[in-house]
Write a structure and sequence with these properties.
This protein is an alpha/beta fold and 343 residues long. The chain has twelve helices and twelve strands. It has a single domain, classed as TIM Barrel, CATH 3.20.20.70. Helix content is 31%, strand content 17%. It has a twelve-stranded mixed sheet with strand order 7-8-9-6-5-4-3-2-1-10-11-12. The longest helix has 13 residues. The structure holds S-adenosylmethionine (SAM) and iron/sulfur cluster.
Amino acid sequence: MTEKLLNTLVSDNTALADPFGRTISYLRLSVTDRCDLRCAYCMPEKMQFLPRPEILSLEELETVAKAFIKLGVNKIRITGGEPLTRRNIMSLFEGLSNQLGNGSLGELTLTTNATLLSRYAQTLADFGVRRVNVSLDSLDGTTFARISRRAILPVVLSGLQAAKKAGLKVKLNTVALKGENQKEIPSIISWAHDQGFDITLIEVMPLGDVHAERSDQYIPLSDIRDQLEERWTLDPLSYRTGGPSRYVRVRETGGKLGFITPLTNNFCDGCNRVRVTCTGKLFMCLGQNDHADLKTALRSSPDADGLAQCIREAISRKPKGHNFDIDQRIAPAVARHMSVTGG
Ligand code: SAM
Ligand code: SF4
């Protein structure tokens, strides 16, 4: 699809809004479902990955991203699987960096496990990335290896230092895991704040079969918060991203701490985002199965209007919220793994 055709894409300029009046301004674009780690809460050891022929090319992913930009999306997060494992992935960042340059896109960012950040941090910064979210569930080599099933904590820590050196602002994501990193969470927070990193804690969500009992992994963040409040003062912040995070400032460290609690609290009311998988499926909600097939629209439409129409029509079906339920912790709420939908 040519740039010229894309330019004709939006015949009417109305913002993308869903039936509940929420404006969709944020796209999470998954570029691969593959990963170099095997985090126990995310996927089973022997994960069945999507067949390669089903995956969109980087050019097609760029066209999808640009279609959303034309429709008013101003923030794009590249995700996966592990996005930096996709061959030639920097070409996608390069293509989208022009959109940052001309002001069409407000922010281009990514979520990564940092294993390849030593190689790519500076290039990402050169292409206009200013912030990265990095998943880090333990600072103890043995625990890290047990959770991620790969003994490469030092590589991840070097990646984080490379991000710092390149001037990228880092936010850590830490999934709270019962009996696993639970006791270590205060020291991960202290370390993060020492490094100048914000950190967000996440409740395990029942996404995909991971060949383990979810109830063995899940711990409500309310328990962790109680634990933290015994040692620190947590001052609530009004800062919001339109996402599910709620933030506090830890008075003693001065750092920012977020809580994502999809199970104990539902923050769908202000949801401003949608997700596209690497096979071109547009999911309007992380926790629901309804989706639109952008690949077919992309490949069959003689012009870009088909893609735009498909996106608008899908957004008109965005549901009010997810159905995660405490009782669904054991069986997956949806069969897709987070690595497929894109975190
Ligand atoms: N590989 C990259 C990474 O780990 O940052 C990006 C993709 S990963 C799927 C995105 C985020 O989803 C990570 O922060 C990860 O911890 C989180 N995640 C994966 N499975 C999850 C689950 N079942 N419940 C909660 N968070 C999950
Ligand atoms: Fe890979 Fe990220 Fe899933 Fe871990 S959480 S297995 S790093 S996609």
